[in-house]
Amino acid sequence: MTTVLHTLAAVGPVAAAWGVHGLWMRRRLSAARRDPLTGLWTRHAFETRTAHTLARRPHVAVILCDLDGFKAVNDTHGHAAGDAAIRAAAAGLTDALDGRPGAVAARLGGDEFAAAVPLADPLALPWLLRGLHDGMTAPFRHAGRDLTVGASIGAALSSDLNPAVSRPGEALATLLRLADEAMYAVKRAGGGWHYPAATTPARGTTAGRRTGRPGTHMTHRKGAA
Predict the structure, then answer these.
(1) Using an 8 Å Cβ cutoff, are 116 and 49 in contact?
(2) Is pLDDT above 50 for 28?
(3) 158 near 102, Cβ under 8 Å?
(4) Potential cystine with 74: which of 4, 50, 82, 220 (Cβ 3.0-4.6 Å)?
(5) Mean pLDDT of the chain, nearest integer
(6) Crossing angle for the helix pair 70-77 and 79-97, nearest 10 degrees?
(7) What residues contact 14, with CB distance under 8 A and at least 6 apart?
(8) pTM of the entire structure?
């Protein structure tokens, strides 16, 4: 019995140290999956979580958002204002997805964001996109000034895809291309949101994105009624 007690006394500190190390590692891994500026998921974490959602939910909206006028804010008011714009847009994105179980929001890099949102009813997608646009373009306060940026938002819906595109990884790649095309179509029109209900990409792709990319039939342009 004495030998057992001595052994436990010797092993205890080592086990505790490994427990602390394991907790530290888990926190480091979690931090690596989060964008340090906004706290949103990074690209890799977004793709992993969205593929998981696509395998389990029948109607998933994949959404890409690109800020409009971000460079002007950054150049005119400084990098701190640019960072504030990114954080404000991220907060607007997060608020718009609040109360939607299974929703995933990410910052892909620069001023580009993404979201994947399971929908009980696909007809609710336009209301979701309108809320996202309103949230991400709301004025924000920086250095005593109210500043704004615009946003171009494109969306694709998993249930619109050809049933032959069945593997979650393949479906996600297709949905991201479709959302990318929709986003740049509405950006060319002046910003807003766009869901073309497309089933296959209209253009060729390079590295999974629309070739030539720099950096429902329902479209809502910035300033439209």
Answers:
(1) yes
(2) no
(3) no
(4) 82
(5) 85
(6) 140
(7) none
(8) 0.79
